[in-house]
Amino acid sequence: MPVAYHPQNFWQIIFAVYHTGLSQPRVWLRTMMLLPVSIGLALLNNYNEDFRGWSTDGLIMPFGFLVAVITSFRLSDAYHKYERAAGLLTAMHGSCRETTARLCAYVTPGNEEAIDLALQIRRLLVLGCVLIKEFVRGEKSDLAEEHDIGLLTASERQLLVNTMCIVAPSVVATDDDGAEQIDERLSAMTAAALKKDRYPSKNRAAFAFQQAQLINSQLHRRSHYSVPHTYMAVEAGICHCASIYEEVEHFGGSVLPLPYAQLTRLIALLFLCLVPISTVHGLGWGVIPLCFFANLVYFLVDDVASQMEVPFGHDANDVDLEKMIRRIDKHTAAQMSLLVRPNPNPNPNPNPNPNTAAQK
Question: How confident is the model at residue 32 (pLDDT cuts 50, 70, 90)?
Fold first, then answer.
């Protein structure tokens, strides 16, 4: 989970190591890999008089501005992506709580069937959040754990894991006019020759929200809502959760285009290699610590940007999907408990005699 810090602690933030870029071995390895360049140039400058006469001061100029601009844009875009991902989780949490609150307010109290259907909607909302996490993390699951803890029924698991949901012809011919016609051989094919697929694993979260919509429609058709227009209010909340899933899916599957990522790293690599060449004559042996810190700073920036570009990953500073799902489950369950077990004493005044307080 992201490490909490106090913004007013200036020095503690600067020298923090745990769960920062400084704790990543890959950052130090990349920094040390470029250090031999500066060491070799320092040796040449100290022991080779011919090398001292070379004019290398202007080599770094064409790349300095490009590195500054590209690195700045990349770091800013990565942070905006991280911020947007955290905002989507917050919106998912708010939408689930709002939908649950509407169910508690609108469902006819005391009706066991209506309460059971409302509980099913809450279950499916939490299930959808869990399936979103599995999708963006790329986790392969047979949904056994979800079934064991009660988030998934046996029939739903059978449908999502084992049932062949998609059956399509595998041979389609096109005539001269361009109209698609089923090949004559299709009539002779057996069912085994058709293309069959199970329910797409990437669409499991959408299934949960679809089932929630079906149960919501049952509540409406069976007249379990105390006010007619409340069906649309609950439907809007479920649809909002589904739309957030689409955005989370986009964030989880979109990365920087390879040419752009390659360009940013190539220009930075050339810049870091030219820094010792341009400064070795003026600094001598001092070029070694200069290049060490230049390499370290750039690779720290690159590592931080790489983590923020994949905000739903497993890094310590990625958005905490597990914590948000636990909050959604806990808060919606607390809300729904008021519907299942209403307050036996709705009167806020503990004194049954309203005249006693006035007499006192």
Answer: very high
